[in-house]
Amino acid sequence: MQVIIIIMPNRQTDILFQLIHSLEKAEKRHFKLYINRNSARQDLKIVQLFDAIDKLKEYDEKLLLKKLQGIEKPQLHNLKTHLYREILAGLRLLKSADSIDLQLNEQFDYAHILYKKGLFGQSLRLLEKAKETAISHQKFNHLTQLISLEKRLETLYITRSGQDKVERLAAQALEVIDHTNMVVRLSNLVMQLFSWYIRYGHARNTDDEKAIRQFFSQNLPPGIEVQNGFYEKLYLYQAYSMYAFIRQDFLQYYRYNQRWVELFDVTPLMIRVETGHYIKALHNLLNAHFDLRNHQQFARVLTRFEAFAETERVRNHQNFSVQCFIYIYVAKINQHFMQGSFAEGLTIVPHILEQLEAYKFFIDRHRVLVFNYKIASLYFGNGDYSTCIDYLHLIINDSPDLRYDLQCYARLLHLLAHYEMGNTGITESLIKSVYRYMARMQNFTTIEEEIFKFLRRSFALSRHQMKQELELFLQKTKALEKNRFETRAFAYLDVISWVESKVHNQPMSQVVADKYKAARIRHYRD
Q1: Is residue 282 part of a domain?
Q2: Which residues lie below 8 Å from residue 142, measured CB to CB, with a gap of 6+?
Q3: Is residue 118 classed exposed, middle or buried when 0-12, 13-18 and 19+ CB atoms within 10 A define those classes?
Q4: How many domains does the chain have?
Q5: Over the stretch 205-251, which tens digit does the pLDDT of each residue have?
Q6: Is a pLDDT exceeding 90 seen at residue 195?
Q7: Within-domain flag for 35
Q8: Could you tell me the residue range of the domain that residue 37 belongs to?
């Protein structure tokens, strides 16, 4: 079997090269029209530069200079800077009609120009219109700017506004400050929790649990229970969702993600305003159903997600298309994990790799890392241990500074793959090195200790003794399944199904598929 390896994207490439290669056909066509309308003849050198960079597969400055006759290296930097700004200006024009944020920024700019011209009445009318749009879409950060300019007009010039108008404006300014302060504090909390998870993964022990509880309680703003704004609720649900996920309280994780999705259901206008947050809500809800093995609900949410991914809102925006690709295909792999259909899951891997290459400028290292681990797990479940090892090497060798928890489980899965291949010498060596690594990272739970104990003893056992040892190992793992601090291991590696496959002498895929069928039967009976 030919192995297709995911290449980590080069994050150091030229920013202008990245920007041009991120453009869609319609955006490139619009830029050409925009630049021809708005540039002097001598400025059209940037069109030559645009075309030359667009044709490059990789950024090569020497080759670029050869293609641009009459342009010397000192000129190139200035031309690139000018082109970069012009592309952004063209995109701003193209995208402004579809973005509330860009529209509000534009209206503020126009109001400010009118204010500078001394046309205060026109400026105030434009500010009022912009404020109505900002309030209806709960854009309090924009309201701060708009009110600030309005207050300047009321303070410095005689606008003939009544006392009631002034009092309303003052009260509105204070209300916006309260909203903004709460949203900033909650969004900061979400960002800090996510940063903690990216670095460390789930809480590993009682010390981690205590630390994250203390951090959360100290940073959760007081008075949140009386806040009713969309963004306050959005970030509150996100904060509780992330907090529960780190602590592996998957039931609470599900509840807050369900509230997150329902928030958009009751305010459908905000799906267009905050599409990225809506996509993330569906992704998290899928993860929650996966962690709880809610097969039916998982399938329903995935169908809803796939339908949304086909809407114009997503298809016409590259950022949303990339997000949907990542989350939907992670969900599809997770569904194969639940169903035991590892071979079927591998059929979507070539498409995933093609899309990762196509979107290489838009996908961060963390997402690629997760895909590598999930693909490796598919190969492991399907019994292709050699290819599994190839994908694990990408994690172990290329991303040692990211997701310490995933680093540990990549090494553990790597060890088990060699064990399954019968590479006794390598396995004995890996047991020692992986054990030391996980101990150094403080990533041990009881289940991992039991895995190492079993592996160490297994080399000296007869076939009959091995059967007994496996059955004992299975009893121990099942006893640990309900322990919250042990669920992390089962989320990354289905240890129980792996041991059961060896006890019953069945492929791991068959063991998982039988469990899935039994769960569906129970669901229909209930």
Answers
A1: no
A2: 101, 104, 105, 108, 130, 134
A3: exposed
A4: 3
A5: 788 889 999 999 999 988 777 667 899 999 999 999 999 999 989 99
A6: no
A7: yes
A8: 15-97
